C-alpha cells in the first residue's frame, strides 16, 4: 500500500462524478463530512450539476472529467454515472492516482469489474462499492448477529424488494434491484458461507422488453437457501427479509422505522438421529419453541453518512473497505449467472465457471 | 346424471369420516346447515370422535366405515382422513352410491385422484374437493374481478403462505400448504388461462427429511408467471397474494380483516410499437399511473359454510361443484410436477406429460 | 362460606339464562368444560334458545326461570340477559341457593349491584361478573407485570376501544363499551392504586339520543391518569391500551394476534431535586432511554374458557372470583359517576359520594 | 394594502432568524425556492448558524438582528426562535417594514399574538404563521373534502399525536404539540364551524413540573366534538386523526406513507323523526352502511415547500396567507383556555372571554 497517495488528517479532496439520481445524495453527504472536502461536481450536463448544488454553493462545476482528474487537490472520486460508464470513468480515475468509490453495481459486467479491482490492486488505491444498504444500522446489526452466531446455523434467507419502480431502459429488474439484496447477503453471511449457484425466473408483463418481476434462488455451500423477489410493478412497497436460523429467526422490515428488526425465539427443532435411541429413530421428534420476540433498539443514522466515513477510513488506513471492490465483484458474478439462468428457463447455474448444473 | 340418487328438499343425510384436525370444522358446519342432516362421525379412534362431538350430541359415532356406508339415510360423505387413505375411503363411498367431499388434496397421487374422478363420473355422483379458501368472500371476489377482466390482462401472481406450521410426518411443505395456493390459482384464473409448467426449489433446514421452505414458479400459457412461497419455519405468519394486471393490481392480505382486498389503480404502461411513430420506436415510452386504491367491502362469512352450501347445490342439481374433482386433479398434477422438479434441482417441468423442459 | 351448597368433584350443574348475543358463547364454553354440566338454556323466546343449541343437542330448553331454579341438579346459573333484568333474575337465583355469574355490567345501577353483592354475601354464594377481557392471556400478563412492579410506578393508562358498533337502544356508548376498559383497569391496577374521580365528555352525532362517542378521564389516587376513548361510529376497529410506567411502557394491541403485548424499555427520566447539587437544581435534568422492545410469547387461549374455570374454582373453594361482584360494583360506581359528569358538561366527579369537585 | 413594499417578480430577499431545531428546515426550503433569495441566517450563536449552512455556503451569517433588518435587500423574515421571543423579534421586523413568517405558536400569549396581528394590519404587511402540517398534501386534501361537504356534517374529530418527545423546559405538552392539531382543525373546518369551548386534562408523570400527557376536548358550535391526545412519554409514535361525518368518515395516518388517507363509506344512520310514521317514532331506526374504502392517491410533496410558496404568494398579492396571523391567534386562544382549564381541574372553558362554563 506504499504507493497510495499520502493521506494526512486534512480533509480528503473529493469529486463527485454524475449529478443524476444518486449524485445529489453523495454531494450532500460528502459536504456534511469533516473527513472530506468536496471540490467538484462533474456532469456532462453542467446545468443539471448546478441545479443539484443550488444557488448558494461554493463547489465547482464542470463537464470535463480530465479537469477534475488533473486537480491535485482531488485525492478521491465518487462515481454515480450509469453502470455502462463505470469502467472508463473509474479506470481513468485510478490511473490518475485517485481513490474510487463506485455506485452499485461495480461495473456493467464481471470482466469489467475485475479490471477495476486489478487496477486498484496494482496501484494500491482504495476501490469501494457504494452498497448503501450495508451501512444501515439494521444491516450492520444483522451482520453482527449472524457473525456472532446469535441465530444459530442459517437455514434460509428470504428477501422481498418490490415497489412501483422506475422501469430502466438498459437493465432488467434483477440488475436494478437485486444488487441491494445480493450485497446485503454478501455482507451479512458468516465467514465460510457463500452462494454457489443461482436460478432466476422472470416475467416482462408490460412489454418493456426485459424482466420487470423476477425471482432468484441461491444455493449456499452450507445447504441453506436464499431467495430474492424483485419487482418493479407492485403498487405496494415491501422491503422485508426473513433470516431463519437454527436458534432464532430475524425479520427485517426496512419500512417500519419503529421496529426495523425483530428477533424471534420461535422455531422448530428436530432431534438428530444421534440423540435418539433405537426405537425413537423410527419417529421424527419435532418440538416447537414459542418464545419472546425482541426488537432491538437501533440508532437512527443515515446509511450514506456511515458509508462515507468508511470510505475515509479505507483511504486513510489503506485497508479494504467493508464493501470493497471484491464484494462488488461477487455481486456481479451472481447477477451474470442469474442472467444466464434467465435465458435458460430458470436452470440452476453454478457460480464457479457459470456452468449449468 | 340420471343415475344420481333421488334428492328432494329434505336435508341430505351426511357422514363425516375422520375426526382429526379438520373433521371438527366439517362437523360444526354440517350441523349448522339446514341442507344437511349429520348422521355419523366415523373415526378409527372412537374416543376422539366422541370428544369432537362433546357430551351433549345426538350424532352417532362409529369406527366402522361399512356401517356408515350401509346406512341408507346417508346420501353423502365428507372425508377428512390422511391423504394416503382418500382413495380407498372415497372409492368405497362412491361404490356405495354416496356423494363424496374430500379434504384437500384430492388424493395422494395424480393417478389415485384420476381413479376417483372416473368412478364418480361413471356413477353420476358428485365428487367435490374441499378447497376451503376458494369459498372465502375475498377469493370469490378475486375470481369475479379476474373473470370480468377488471384487472386487465394478468401479468403475475405472487403468493406467500408462511407460518410456524406443523412439520408433517409424511408430506413436505409443498404438499401441505401449496394446495391452498394452487386451488386458489385454479379457481380465479380466467377461462383459457392455465399453468403449463412448474419449477420448485426447497430446503429442509431442520433435518426433517423433507422440504420445510419451498418456492414454486409456474409458467402460464398466457406468458404470465405465478410464484408461491410456502414455509413452515417462519415465526411470522403471512398470507398475502399480489395479482398484477395490465389495468389494476390487487393485493389480498388474508390476515387483515379490515382490509383483506385492496385494488390499486397504479401501474406502469408501455406504449406498444404499433402506437409509436418511426422515431419513437427507438425509445420505450413508459408512463406511470398513480391512482386511488379501493378496498371493497366484503361480507364476513365463514368459508366452510359457503363450501357446504355449494356441496348441497352440486348434489341437488347434479352439476359440478365449483371445486369439483377435476379441479382437485389439476392441483395434484402441479404438485406432482413440482415434486419432480424438486428432485431435479429446480428444472422447469411441463405439466402435460410432466416432461422436463 | 359454610352455607354454600355442597360441591364435590362432580361437574357443577349449570343453567344459562339468555340466548341472545352473549348466551351462545357461554353455552359453548360451559359445554366444553369438564367442571360443568350444562342442564338448561333458558330464554323467553324458546325458539331462539333452540336455534342456539342446534338440532343435535341434549340440553333442555325452557322459557320458565322458575323451572330452572327449582331443578336441584342446577347449582349455578350464568345470566346473559339485558342489564335491566340482572337484579330480579340474579336475586331469584341467589334466593334459590344458586351461584351466580352475571354478564357485564353487574346491574343497571350501583344500588342494584349492591343488593346483589349483599345477597350473595348473606347466603355465602359465589357472585361473579363476566368481565371477559380480564381473562385474556394478554390482560392476565399485564396484571402480573403491574403487580410485580415491572413497569415501575404507573404514570398513565390510555385505552381506545372504537369500532362501527351496534348502537344500543337503552344505554349509551359509555355503558356499552367502557365496562370492558374499566374492568380491565380494576383488574390490573396494583393493590392500593385506584380511581378517585372521573370526567366524561360525549357526543351523539347521529341523533341516536345518547352518546355514541365518549371520553372518560380518571384521576387515580396515585396521581396517575387513565383515559378511555369509546366510540360506536368509527369505521376502523381499534382496541389498544398504552400503559406508561416509570421503568417501562407497555402497549397492548388486542387486534394484533402476533404481537398483542409489547414492552418498551424506552422513556424519559427526570432527576429528582434530591439527587441534584445546588446549581443543578436550576435546571431540569432530563435523560432519555431508548432500549429494546420485548413482545412476550403468550399462549393462545379463549378468555371465556379461563373465565369459566375461574367460576368453577370460586364455587368449589368458596373464595371470591378474580372478578367478583365487588369488582363489578366498582365498575358500576365509575359508570354512574361518568354519567353524572356527562350531564354536567364534563366536570370531574368524585367517586366517593359522587360529589362534583 | 397599498403600503406594502413594492414586490416585483424578482426573488424576495429573505432572512431566517434562529438556527436551532426548525431553522435549518427553513434555510433549506428558502434556498430551494426560486421565489426567494436567502440573504442571512441570524442566530445569537454564530457558530451554530455556520454549522447549519455548512462549509460550502454563500449565505451571510450574523448574530445581530439589526444588521439584518437594516438590509434593504431583505424584504421578509422567517422567525424560528423560542416562542417567548416572537413578540420583540417579529415586532422589530414589522416596524422595519419586513413581512414576517413566525414558527408556531404565533406568540407566547394571546395578547402578544394580537399585538403582532395589529401591527401587521396597520402596516399592510404579511404576517403568516408556519403551521407546517396544514401544507401537507394530506391536510390540504382533508380541507378540500370537508369544505366540499364530502363527509357530510362533521360529528367528531379525534386526533392522536404521541411519541417519545423532547420534554420542553418552558412549555407543557399542550403548548408544544397541540398547536399542530389545533391549527389543522382551524384549517380544515368548513366555514361557520368553530370551537367554542375547551376542557383539558393532563398529567406530569415524570416530575417534569408540567404536563407530559394531556387531553383536550373541544366543543364546536355545530354540536360536534373534537378531541386531542398529546403525549411526550409514549414509546410508540402515533399521528392519527379520525374525522367522522354523517356521510363518510376519514382516517388520516400520517405515518403510513402508502395510505395516509382512507375514506370510509361506512357508518350508522338514524332515521329522523320527520321521516317516521307515528308508530315508528317509538323505535329508533338505525341502519348501518358498510361500503368500500377509498385511499386517494396523494402527490408526495414536502409541506414546507408548499408553505414557502404560500408565503411568497401572500407577499406578492397582499392577500392573507392560508395560515395568516389570525389563524395563529385563534390557536393561541384555545391554548390559553386549555391552560386555564388545566388549572381548574378540567372544567370546560368558553373561548369567548375565557369564562368557565
Describe this structure in words.
- Chain A is α/β, with parallel strands linked by helices.
- Chain A has 2 domains: 12-125, Rossmann fold (3-Layer(aba) Sandwich); 134-303 and 335-350, Dihydrodipicolinate Reductase, domain 2.
- The first copy, chain A, is built from 9 helices and 15 strands.
- The first copy, chain A, has helices at 23-31, 46-53, 65-70, 86-95, 110-123, 137-147, 173-188, 303-317, 325-343; strands at residues 12-17, 36-42, 60-62, 76-79, 99-103, 127-130, 154-164, 195-203, 213-220, 225-231, 233-245, 249-253, 261-270, 286-295, 349-350.
- Chain A has a 9-stranded mixed β-sheet. Chain A has a 6-stranded parallel β-sheet with strand order 3-2-1-4-5-6, sandwiched between helices.
- In chain A, a hairpin with a 7-residue loop joins strand 12 (249-253) and strand 13.
- The longest helix of chain A is centred in the C-terminal third of the chain and has 19 residues, at 325-343.
- Chain A is globular, with a radius of gyration of 22 Å.
- The relative contact order of chain A is 0.15.
- Chains C and D meet through strand 7, strand 8, strand 9, strand 10 and strand 11 of C and strand 7, strand 8, strand 9, strand 10 and strand 11 of D.
- Chains A, B, C, D: Residues 140-249 form the GFO/IDH/MocA-like oxidoreductase domain.
- Chains A, B, C, D: Pfam families: GFO_IDH_MocA, GFO_IDH_MocA_C3.
- Chains A, B, C, D: This is Oxidoreductase.
- Chains A, B, C, D: GO terms for molecular function: nucleotide binding.
- Chains A, B, C, D: It comes from Micromonospora arborensis.
Amino acid at each position: 500500500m506504499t504507493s497510495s497517495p499520502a493521506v494526512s488528517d486534512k480533509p480528503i479532496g473529493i469529486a463527485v462524478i454524475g449529478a443524476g439520481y444518486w449524485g445529489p445524495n453523495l454531494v450532500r453527504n460528502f459536504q456534511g463530512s469533516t473527513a472530506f472536502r468536496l471540490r467538484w461536481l462533474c456532469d456532462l450536463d453542467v446545468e443539471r450539476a448546478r441545479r443539484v448544488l443550488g444557488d448558494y454553493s461554493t463547489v465547482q462545476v464542470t463537464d470535463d472529467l480530465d479537469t477534475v482528474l488533473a486537480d491535485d487537490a482531488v485525492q478521491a472520486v465518487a462515481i454515480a454515472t450509469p453502470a455502462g460508464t463505470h469502467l472508463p470513468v473509474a479506470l481513468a480515475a485510478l490511473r490518475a492516482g485517485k481513490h474510487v468509490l463506485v455506485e452499485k453495481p461495480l461495473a456493467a459486467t464481471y470482466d469489467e469489474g475485475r479490471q477495476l479491482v486489478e487496477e486498484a490492486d496494482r496501484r494500491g488505491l482504495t476501490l469501494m462499492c457504494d452498497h448503501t444498504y450495508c451501512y444501515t444500522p439494521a444491516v450492520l446489526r444483522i451482520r453482527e448477529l449472524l457473525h456472532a452466531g446469535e441465530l444459530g446455523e442459517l437455514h434460509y434467507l428470504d428477501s422481498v424488494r418490490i415497489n412501483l419502480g422506475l422501469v430502466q431502459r438498459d437493465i432488467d429488474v434483477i440488475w436494478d434491484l437485486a444488487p441491494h439484496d445480493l450485497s446485503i447477503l454478501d455482507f451479512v453471511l458468516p465467514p465460510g458461507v457463500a452462494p454457489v449457484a443461482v436460478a432466476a425466473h422472470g416475467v416482462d408483463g408490460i412489454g418493456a422488453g426485459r424482466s420487470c418481476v423476477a425471482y432468484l434462488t441461491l444455493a449456499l455451500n452450507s445447504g441453506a437457501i436464499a431467495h430474492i423477489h424483485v419487482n418493479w410493478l407492485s403498487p405496494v412497497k415491501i422491503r422485508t427479509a426473513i433470516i431463519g436460523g437454527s436458534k432464532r429467526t430475524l425479520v427485517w422490515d426496512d419500512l417500519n422505522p419503529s421496529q426495523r428488526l425483530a428477533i424471534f425465539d420461535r422455531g422448530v427443532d428436530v432431534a438428530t438421529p444421534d440423540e435418539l435411541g433405537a426405537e425413537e429413530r423410527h419417529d421424527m421428534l419435532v418440538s416447537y419453541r414459542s418464545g419472546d420476540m425482541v426488537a432491538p433498539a437501533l440508532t437512527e443514522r443515515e446509511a450514506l453518512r456511515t458509508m462515507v466515513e468508511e470510505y475515509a477510513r479505507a483511504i486513510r488506513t489503506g485497508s479494504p473497505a467493508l464493501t470493497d471492490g471484491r464484494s462488488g465483484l461477487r455481486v456481479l458474478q451472481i447477477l451474470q449467472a442469474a442472467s444466464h439462468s434467465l435465458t435458460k428457463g430458470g436452470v440452476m447455474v453454478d457460480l464457479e465457471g457459470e456452468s449449468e448444473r
